[in-house]
Amino acid sequence: MTIPHEVRDDDSPGHGPLVAPAAPQLAPAAGPSCASPPGPVTGLPGGLPVDELADALQRWTHRPGLAVDDVRCAPIRHRISAPTTRALTRVTVAASDADGPVTLSLVTKELQAARYGLPPQMPDEARAHLDTVIPWRLEAEAYASPAADRMPDGLRMPDLVAVHEQPGDRMTLWLEDVDPVDTPWTDDDHVRAAGLLGRLAARRAGDDRLLPRGGEFLTTYLRDNLLGWSGPLLCGDEIWRHPLFTLPSVAALRPDLTALAGRVDALFARLDGLPEVLCHGDATPMNLLRPRARPADFVAVDWGTATPAPVGFDVVPLVFGRAEAGTGDADESPRLLELAVPAYHEGLAAEGMEVPLETVRTAVVLAALLRYPSSSLPLEAFLGGAPVTDEAVARTVQRAAFVRMVLDLERDLPR
Q1: Residue 330: C-alpha distances to residues 335, 378, 412 (Å)
Q2: For 263-372, where are the alpha helices, taking DSSP H only?
Q3: Contact status, residue 216 vs residue 271, Cβ threshold 8 Å
Q4: Which residues lie in Basic and acidic residues bias regions (predicted)?
Q5: N or C end: fewer C-beta atoms under 10 angstroms in the chain?
Q6: Domain of 221?
Q7: Taking the CB of residue 98, how many other CB atoms lie within 10 A of it?
């Protein structure tokens, strides 16, 4: 039978942390598989041959006689925002051996070189440059790194079942389906996650650095985004004439954003000399799944921005990630910050890494100032000429509140 699965057009827009953002691509909602009449299984995500899938499942389950009888695939409803992610698919496998039938659930993540997913309006020179520095293979490298062996109790990576290399700078990761709960995160969830991330950072202190081709995340972000793209845009006049940027709450940000652009080098210099740790890079609540079987634990997924960074860097997406994505209120982040920083600090100390609490907090706020305000407004609407809809206005007002909140955190930093 031919297995249907979601495939995003190679040239459809997407964005990562280093590029001009385009509208996220929303994969279709998962629905019933369009199963064909019985016959050979074909059309697996990424083109994985069924015999290779069977071999991988035998290794994963420790059942050497396991045979694949049927496969059902459904696209995962997910906002694809990284140019290196082509598709996410949930795969249900019916298999059997002498011990009887078994149903296995996996998730495939199809990765690709950044050039396939960058915005089509991007100039060729910029596209070629970003294609060389955005590390599309980094997630696979992270799963193969010692990080999985460093995880403290309560935190882990998903099982990597198979990796299928494809021509043209593409690969597909076959991962355990974590089957996460979808209940809202509590304050206790944030505190537990922060403590575990602190423990993990300390445990990885002696490991080799997983270094993206372009350099550490903040260094690359500073060069390619803040100084090369978003900063110059926000310091000009034209963008502030766009209808979304004339909204009162957005226009009021202009003096502070232009001033921040002038202080980028100084803020970055303050991070120099702080302890460096190995980070997940995007440890948002959306990437720390709580498995239904053990909802008090976390499974860390989406390691595509793993990076060396100043201590505390993983706290940034943990406490700001929901508000940035629009799934949480901006007002929640300062409160979560006061809970998560001490928990992360305690996690470091529990593993023998002594860093002053105020140093961790300063590093987190500085990283947030560099990461969010200059790129959280809808710069893509100005570049791409998207229509100004009621939805776009509402989202822009929400983003403006988020930017205002992050900017205000600087007032409490020690001078």
Answers
A1: 10, 16, 17
A2: 264-271, 315-325, 332-350, 357-371
A3: no
A4: 1-13
A5: C
A6: 179-412
A7: 7
Q: How many CB atoms lie within 10 A of CB 276?
A: 16
The answer as to whether 195 is a domain residue is: yes
Residues 233, 261: one domain? yes
Domain co-membership, 34 together with 136: yes
What CA–CA distance (Å, rounded) separates 258 from 261?
5
Helix axes 254-262, 390-408, angle to 10 degrees: 50
Q: How many domains does the chain have?
A: 2
DSSP 377: S
Q: Look at residue 145 and tell me if it is in a domain.
A: yes
Q: Alpha-carbon distance 30 to 28, whole Å?
A: 6
Q: Are 93 and 161 in contact (CB under 8 A)?
A: no
pTM of the model: 0.87
CA–CA separation, 203 and 220 (whole Å): 25
The answer as to whether 50 is a domain residue is yes
* 146 and 34, same domain (yes or no): yes
| Among 195, 207, 204, residue whose Cα is nearest residue 155 | 195
- What SS3 state is found at 240? helix
Residue type at position 114: A
Instruction: Provide the CATH number for the domain around residue 382.
Output: 3.90.1200.10
Q: Which two tokens stand for residue 54?
A: 């069977």
In tens digits, what is the pLDDT along the chain, a chain of 415 residues? 333 333 333 332 233 333 333 333 333 333 333 343 344 555 799 999 999 999 999 999 999 999 999 999 999 987 767 899 999 999 999 999 999 999 999 999 999 999 999 888 777 887 888 888 888 999 999 999 999 999 999 999 999 999 999 999 999 999 999 999 999 999 999 999 999 999 999 999 988 776 555 567 777 777 777 888 888 999 999 999 999 999 999 999 999 999 999 998 899 999 988 999 999 999 999 999 999 999 999 999 999 989 999 999 999 999 999 999 999 999 999 999 999 999 999 999 999 999 999 999 999 999 999 999 998 999 888 877 778 999 999 999 999 999 999 999 999 888 7
> Read out DSSP for 131-147?
HHHS-TTHHHHHHHSTH
Residues 255 and 358 occupy one common structural domain: yes
